[in-house]
């Protein structure tokens, strides 16, 4: 089983938005084999609580605008690890300390990485 086209498109939208809000270390994992109800985990790191909240809020807003339904949101109040569940896609926006501590990449290391095509940074000419 591989990630659905819908899950991949959602991950693409979320990754572009997270990148535009200075999200770092973006990794998309195809978890469709071990988790039949989810296709992709998108992992994003924010530098501080405000950055984590801004990334999560913007990702949520853009996915809703694209017509996707949010099933659940957790962690927004503390903004150390915000989880956004959109069914086929679950976005994890971490403070850098939580990302290291929980190590989801290690936990899901057997899952294939979904390539993310992000816009090239603007040149400083």
Distance between the termini: 45 Å
State the total count of DSSP E strands.
6
| Class by SSE composition | alpha+beta
Radius of gyration: 14 Å
Helix-strand pattern, N to C? Answer: HEEHEEEHHE
Percent of sequence in beta strands: 15-25%
Helix coverage percent of residues? 25-40%
Low-confidence stretches: none
Give me the number of helical elements. Answer: 4
Cross-sheet strand order for the largest sheet: 3-4-5-2-1-6
How does this model look, in words?
- The chain has 125 residues and is of the alpha+beta class.
- Helix content is 35%, strand content 25%.
- It contains 4 helices and 6 strands.
- A 6-stranded mixed β-sheet has the order 3-4-5-2-1-6.
- α1 (5-20) crosses α2.
- The longest helix has 17 residues, at 49-65.
Tag the structure with descriptive keywords.
about 120 residues; alpha+beta; six-stranded mixed beta sheet; 4 helices; globular
């Amino acid at each position: 089983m591989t990630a659905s086209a819908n899950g991949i498109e959602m991950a693409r939208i979320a990754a572009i938005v997270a990148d535009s809000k200075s999200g770092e270390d973006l990794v998309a994992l195809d978890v469709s084999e071990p988790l039949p109800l989810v296709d992709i985990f998108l992992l994003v790191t924010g530098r501080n609580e405000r950055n984590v909240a801004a990334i999560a809020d913007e990702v949520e807003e853009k996915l809703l605008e694209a017509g996707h339904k949010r099933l659940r949101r957790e962690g927004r109040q503390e903004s150390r690890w915000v989880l956004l569940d959109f069914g086929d896609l679950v976005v994890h926006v971490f403070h850098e300390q939580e990302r290291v501590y929980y190590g989801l990449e290690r936990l899901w290391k057997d899952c294939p990485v979904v390539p993310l095509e992000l816009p090239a940074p603007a040149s400083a000419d």
